[in-house]
Amino acid sequence: MSVTELAEAAADRDPGTGLAAVAALRVLLEELEAMHVSNARAQGWSWEQVADALGVKRQSAHRKHARRIGR
User: What is the pTM of this model?
Assistant: First the structure.
């Protein structure tokens, strides 16, 4: 299902359809975040810069992503 289709399904009046779409969008969002954090770190961004861009504390960004990218 495309992102556009997921967004449309998330607005569906049927709770089952809407909630399933929200869950799928959450997975997609986590994948996108991980990809961009990895890219930022590979380009030399500090954990503080990553956290600022995400609107979270440095410790939160580090805790969530550091083990996955090996830093």
Answer: 0.83
